Each structure stands twice: as structure tokens, then as C-alpha cells.
Amino acid sequence: MRSEDGINGVNFEFRFGPPKFLRTPSPIELLLLYSAQQLSIVPFSASSLHENNMEAPPPLPNNTLYLNNLSDKLKRKRLQDSLRAVFKQFGDIIDILCWPKSLSRKGQAWVIFRETSSAIKALTSMQGFPFYDKPMRIQFARADSDLLAKQKGTFVPRPKKKPLDKVKKVKPVAAPIIVGGELRPAPINPESIPDNQPPHNILFVTNLPQEGGEEFLSQMFQQYQGFREVRMVPSRPDIAFVEYENEMFASMAKDGLQGFKVTPTQKIKVVFAKK
Length: 275
Prior knowledge:
The chain is 24% helix and 22% strand. By secondary structure, the protein is of the alpha+beta class.
């Protein structure tokens, strides 16, 4: 039987039914099921801390799931409709966020449920699910989306950006490039950036894609606890500063995202900013 909201012409209501529970599990039982599953699942952004070489804890269960390893051949609406068809069996979905047109955002999505119990059921049931012939990797997001935080009444506006004259300038490692008569700084070579700076609550990120932008970086770095803000540098889309509440949180984000592939051939470099 075919359905428009199915995938590959198959209605998931029939092919992939909801998990078979003898009765509706309680929130505590769902938490126990999730905890047991973590013993065999390595979180996507797991990192180790410099101070004690211990693995960072996985995100706590919440309403939002972070998905990656998704097909990069789908348009935004089809990807959203397909994900909704797969996940609607677990509960009411508030929104599905994805940006498949951007090279640096392909293969990723955020599914926001109204209830945390729905997100737990979805994660425990759909981990590794073959979505368009690729196994989904799922974990809880490390921070509520702005939309969900506003609905919960917990939304706190991000602090205003500091004046750019207070951000330490980065010296280019190559001569400026003249494009169409306009003088533009040359891209920074990530290999030339020293990574032996002392711990700092501000990270310096290089080798970013031209089309990334502040929104993309915020989604990436706010998965880690203590995130405050992203500060872009005018005329330099390849670099940015990311601030956390303290050095420990910044260290976790640095380790977790060091070498992260924003495109199939481009890895970002994350170091502590100079104090």
C-alpha cells in the first residue's frame, strides 16, 4: 500500500509500526530503557575532557532529537515530510528543523516533540533505522531550540554581542585577495593556528564554509552545555569566536567538534582563543 507521507512509496504506519509494548510504559521505565541503550550506543558528539580524560556524559533526555547521517539528496520539504512520517507515531511533533541546501548542514535534522517521553520512545526505537538506505544516528540535543524554550517559558535572550573592536584581530597568513576590484582578506590556513593556547572560555574556530553563518554555528555549538554566543567577524566568514560560561564547557565543545566535517572535504579547527 502506498502513501504520500511514506518513504520510497511505503507507508510507515504499516511497514514500521510503533514499538510493541504490552502496556504504555511510564516515564521512569522509558528513562531506564534509554539508560540501558546508552551502554551500547556511542553518542555522535562524545568527547573526552583534558583534565581527567573522562568521556563527556551524553545529553540528558529532552524534547529534541538530533539526527545525522541522513540522506543528502532530499529537498527540505521532502526531508521534513519523510521524517514526520517516521516519527509521528511516537507523539506530537512541534517542528522539524533542517537545512539540506547548505553543504555544511546536509545530513542533519532536529525533531522537536511536545513531550520528552515521546522523544525517548523515538530514540530507543529508531536508533540505526535505515532511512533512505542510511542508518540514522540519533541522540538528544544538548539544548532546547529557541521555539521550545519560548513555549516552556525558559527562553533567555542571548547576550548582546560585544563590540568588534574588543575582539582580538587575527593576522592573516597570506596576502589579501583582490576580487572584482575589492580587497578581501585571504583565508586562514588552519594548520598555521597554534593549538597550545591555555584553556579559555572562548573558542576560536577556523576553516568554516562560506555559507555557514551564525545560525549554523549556533546550532552546532549549542549542543554543548554552557553555550553563550557565536561572534562572527565581518568580511571573514571562515572564522568565528564561540563563547561558553567557563573553560570546562568550552573544553568539552572543543574536543567534541575538533575536526568536525562541515562538508565532505572540509574540517573545522577549534582552539582556545588567546586571552
